[in-house]
Amino acid sequence: MAPDTQQRRRRMTAEDRHEQILDITHAIVDAEGFHAATLNRIAAEAGVSRTVLYQQFGDLPGLFVALVDREAARAGTWFAEAVAQSPPPTDRDGAFTHAFAEVLRAVDAHPATWRLFLFPPQGAPPELHARLVQAQSFVREYFMSVLLSINPDLPDPEYTAHILNAAGDELLRLRLTEPDAATHERLLAHVRRLTPALLRQAV
């Protein structure tokens, strides 16, 4: 190992080391699944001993939970920012389309984070599925709030929110799996066509 590399590693703060280990773990998980992310491999790629991993995360499940929590917080922040930048709910088509466009930009900028939840890797810990349930509930609550702002008497907004949530997730999966075909223009055009059909009762 080169002296300058050794110096950089010695200078790394505990917080920086924490993030470095999570980044390395995420890269392995994203490419090969959780089963491939062993303590020995993570330690080797981070250039640290297993003792450092234990000090930082307790054990391998603790490391996985820390990764899931970090990525869930990031995705939640990006979604909240997308919603905050959207037009008022009274702009029926614009609110959903703009929010989806902002989420698409976040997916393009951070695909590994979104793959973690849209395509849970093999061997994912139960905490990932728990965070996913929480996130979906948050998204559906957003959809319901917009739906009820459009029409407080809308029949069964809960199920309409479920449909919107499922449709949005599938479009994001298409963006991740076939980006050349699932362009922003094509996906947003579909959202513009889909929204009035689902919200016809809200007119």
UniProtKB/TrEMBL annotation:
Residue ranges forming the DNA-binding region read 38-57
Q: Which domain of life is it from?
A: Bacteria
Keywords tagged on the record: DNA-binding
Which residues does the UniProt record annotate as the domain HTH tetR-type? 15-75
Key word Manganese present: no
Xref: Pfam families: TetR_N (PF00440)
Signal peptide from the UniProt entry? none
Protein name (record): TetR/AcrR family transcriptional regulator
Q: Which species does this protein come from?
A: Svornostia abyssi
